[in-house]
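Re-run with default settings, no changes from the original entry. Doing this only to confirm the output is reproducible before filing.
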Amino acid sequence: AVVSTQSTGTFVPPQILKRLIAYILEENLESGKYTVSYGVVFCVLMLAALLLQTLCIQAYFDKAINTGMKIRVALVAAIYRKALLLSNSGQKSSQLGQMINLMQVDAQKFQVNHGLWTFT
């Protein structure tokens, strides 16, 4: 729902701006067709549309980043738990650098890739 509202919000401000420009270019004030408050309404509508779009984008990014962080934490916890359960022979065959690499670098890649999946 947040993404669809944001997508809709992308198309609304240009339409309002188009009407505002048409209002300014035409001599509507002199003809008495529209009043000054008509232009103010366009400005307020544009402000409201852009604020709504900004709030939707912020909520979407917040959810995506939090989900990515939860994925990373779960992955690091699973790798750490697995490392604690290794037998002595398993600990000898795997180096400490491999464990740290799995827990930090690879988990970070999952978090970044999750961000890329959600933002496209």
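The radius of gyration is 27 Å. The CA atoms of residues 62 and 104 lie 22 Å apart.
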